[in-house]
Amino acid sequence: VPIASERISAGSWLATGFALISLFVRAPELAAQELRLPILVPLAGPLSPEARSQRNGALLAASEPTPGEVVEVEIHDAGLTPEAASLAFERLLARPGTIGVFGPALEGKSFALLPIAARAEVPVITISGAEVSGEPGSPWHFQFYPSAAELKTTVARFAVEERGAKRPAILQHLGDVPGPTLSQHLARHGTAGVASLSVPRIGQNLVPTLARIKAASPDSLLLYLNRATAAQAIRQARSIGFDVPILAGPSLAAPSTADLLDPGELKGVCAAAASAPISETGPAIESFVRRYRAQFGESADSLALAQYDALRIVLGAVAGGARTPSALRDALHKGEHRGLAMTYRSDGKGNMAHQTVVVCYDGIDRTPRLAKRYSPPSR
Amino acid sequence: VIVVQLLTDGLALGSAYTLMALGFTLILIAVRAANFAHGTVVVAGALAGAALAGAIPAAPIAILGQVVAVAAVLGVVLCVVSYLPIADRPPAVFLVSSLAAGNFLARGVELDFGATLTFAQPLLGPGAIPIGAIALPRQSFAIISAALLLTVLLQLLLRHTQFGRRLRAVSDDPSMASALGIGVPIMLAIVFAIASALAGAAGYMLANQFLLTGADAVDFLLKAYLAAALGRWNSLLGAAIGAFAIALIEVFVAAYSSAAIADAALYLGLFAILLIRPKLLFGGTAIRGT
């Protein structure tokens, strides 16, 4: 036994010695290791318009100088399904130097990433606005866009308080996320919808659903749909002469959605979003809009600005010393972070953005006017 | 009022589905197997229309003509790539090769167009024609008219021309047709061209009201397949009636129940066909003429 013990002891020392030597050898390599912040977005499919904004916002933010660390910002395809997004996410987590991942906007893909991020203890930063509510909060999740609940509150509140809606109808996606529905938000403002219908996420004929809503004679239509479906809903609603005012979520505040439609089809359409870059005034935001247009040849929207803000804030945190996933998590949870769209702060549940705006189109051009700002949006 | 609105929508949708189903059935008759790339050609027609409108300023009706030409060329390519090399193999081989070609094309479309979604211009102008309390979309009339015209032209071609007679000869007995001096591969390439032209036209006209992506290809394929099945696989008229039946069921079920249930009904229909007559997937029954 003593001999065996000595042998084990000698082996352990030997192993420890090798480990120490390898640490010394690898130390300079580790110090020089590149830090990575991958952006995971669907590059094709129905949600690709939202993803393009996200990608462009990230590329613009990454192209600007940041003091300190060199951080590799790469765009990766999230695919069309949560499963594909999860696989891509796990591949990215396995790469050395990954200190955080920007997840895809909207849909169930973001949900699919949250438990993986929590297990791997890597921050996942989302630019959502439609689905992710951040409840219950994960300490590894940061959402740089108002939650669906806050945006739906804004839509309902604006419809009732500013537009005097008394008989609104609702059209939203089938299988919306848990949490208060638009009907419940309307009820909180003392109004009941005359019809509430859902449509699948895929591009489908919406005329039957719209005809049924039209038959209920609503005085306005509240939409909460992704960009492709929202644009199709407006096109098809107008094509059957359904011309009531429309109050919508962020999809219709985006210039890329407005560009799909004729200005006349947009008459009476208002939309809630985190910000409205092309409708805002001020040197910093106007400079952002100019640079974005110069680089990508199109107008910036609220998702692009949120992604820009989020990446600039994260890069600032890395430059401030947050070189590991846990340090980045702690930095994002602390204090306030000034961006172009708003000042962001963590509420501990993943929500960083606490401002919404409403923009409205006049039917003459595709540039909406700022109609109302809610900061923070009241429940 | 709502019934008239839905009926108009169903007829317009049915007209577009008819074009898809006619093309699908035409290939089925000619090669005795289902062309699983057909749905992708529909989407390709929509996207080709968007690309052509962006590149060449022209009236929407002229763009439609260009889309028909582009889709016809695509059809010839599909024939040469996915059918002719395996023409002497069992029909199931074409099923797989057309599926592969369709997927390859769909991925190519995604790579080319990526995040670009766009509506096509309306053929007869935007908006609706108000008739009393209802408003009937101009594009619906355009789709119904264009589909009717193309269907009549197809019938004339098949029934009253030498080409139609040769096609029937090729379908009935390719070896005998070849022995009689009919160029079977060329005839088949023309069939693929006509079928794809019809599918591309349908995609372009639908693209004024729908934002189509590569992901919609399967949906269109399914509808064309069901319509062909309802037409007992060997009748163009039957496929057209099937297409209208599918569209009207889809529209009325979605209006009075939900779009999800309308979708489910479609898949149940497919399941029933596979359960009752699975051999038809490979054109197992006798296919005679048009």
Write up this protein.
- The complex is a heterodimer of chains A (379) and B (290).
- With 379 residues, chain A is α/β, with parallel strands linked by helices.
- Chain A contains twelve helices and 16 strands.
- Chain A is 42% helix and 16% strand.
- In chain A, strand 5, helix 4 (107-120) and strand 6 (124-126) form a beta-alpha-beta unit.
- In chain A, helix 5 crosses helix 6 (182-188).
- The relative contact order of chain A is 0.14.
- Residues 1-16, 18-31 and 129-135 of chain A have low confidence and may be disordered.
- Chain B is mostly helical and 290 residues long.
- Helices cover 72% and strands 3% of the residues of chain B.
- In chain B, helix 2 crosses helix 8 (184-206).
- Chain A binds chain B through residues 43-46, 48-49, 51-52, 80, 174, 197-200, 202-209, 211-212, 214-215, 227-228, 231-232, 235-236, 238-242, 260-262, 264-265, and chain B through 1-2, 5-6, 9, 13, 110-111, 113-115, 117-119, 126-128, 130, 134-140, 208-216, 219, 250-252, 254-256, 258-260, 262-263.
Q: Short summary of the structure?
A:
Chain A is α/β, with parallel strands linked by helices and 379 residues long. Chain A is built from twelve helices and 16 strands.
Neighbour order of strands in the largest sheet of chain A: 9-8-10-11-12-15-16
The major sheet of chain A is characterized as: 7 strands, mixed
Strand content of chain A is: 15-25%
Instruction: Give, in spatial order, the strands making up the sheet with the most strands of chain B.
Output: 1-2
Overall pLDDT metric of chain B: 86
Measured as a percent range, the helix fraction of chain B is over 70%
Strand content of chain B: under 5%
Shape verdict of chain A: globular
Order of helical and strand elements of chain A: HEEHEEHEHEEHEHEHEHEHEHHHEEEE
What class would the helix/strand composition of chain B place it in?
A: mainly alpha
Following the backbone from N to C, one meets helices and strands of chain B in this order, namely HHHHEEHHHHHHH
The rounded distance between the terminal residues' Cα atoms of chain B is 38 Å
Structural class of chain A: alpha/beta
